[in-house]
Amino acid sequence: MRSLVATTNDVTIAICRLILGIVFFVHGAQYTLGWFGGYGFRGTMHFFTTQLGIPAIFAALAILAQFLGGLGLIVGFLSRIAAFGIACDMLVAIFKVHFAFGFFMNWFGNQKGEGYEYHLLVLALCLLIIVKGAGALSIDRALSKETK
């Protein structure tokens, strides 16, 4: 457990973790609760399983990874696990959906879908958190100080 929550008091990592957590909590809240114009859990499950062909168990895991992973990153609790879940979700999104549309996002609406550049940025931030931990101002930091 100690190595899972071990982290430094790095503020830069904490800022990256917090921003990533907010982004994924908001997306997860769309998927789970229907907030921010989302479809809620049932609607998202329906879309993921029927339109994208994702098996129900993996669709549910993706939704939970974004919602609970985002929340975990915001408070800095089990941040490595949260970042790993989000990274897995992004890898599936790249290869299942976005790779076919190329690298670039669809800023001008001239592609049939979104590319994977955003997902690569998310993967880089997740890798930072998986390797370095949650950083300052996190529950992980408080727990790692207690276990020493």
Note the beta-strand portion: under 5%
Bin the helical content. 55-70%
E-strand count: 0
Average of per-residue pLDDT values = 94
Q: Tell me the distance between the termini.
A: 12 Å
Instruction: Indicate the low-confidence ranges by residue numbers.
Output: none
Number of structurally distinct domains = 1
Number of helices: 7
Structural class, from secondary structure content? Answer: mainly alpha
Topology as a string of helices (H) and strands (E): HHHHHHH
Shape: globular
Biggest sheet: strands, sense, closure? none
Rg measurement, Å = 16 Å
Transmembrane segments: 12-33, 53-78, 90-108, 120-139
InterPro entries: DoxX, DoxX-like_oxidoreductase
Subcellular location: Cell membrane
Pfam family, one: DoxX
Verbal overview:
- The protein is mainly alpha-helical and 148 residues long.
- It has one domain.
- 70% of the residues lie in helices and 0% in strands.
- Helix 2 crosses helix 3.
- The longest helix has 23 residues, at 11-33.
- The chain starts with a helix and ends with a helix.
- The model has no long low-confidence stretch (mean pLDDT 94).
List keywords for this structure.
mainly alpha, globular, 148 residues, single chain, 7 helices
Question: What's the quick description here?
Answer:
The protein has 148 residues and is mainly alpha-helical. The protein has one domain.
Task: Give me the secondary-structure topology.
Blueprint: H1 2-5, H2 11-33, H3 40-51, H4 56-75, H5 79-98, H6 117-132, H7 139-146
Helix pairs in contact: 2-3, 2-4, 2-6, 3-4, 4-5, 5-6
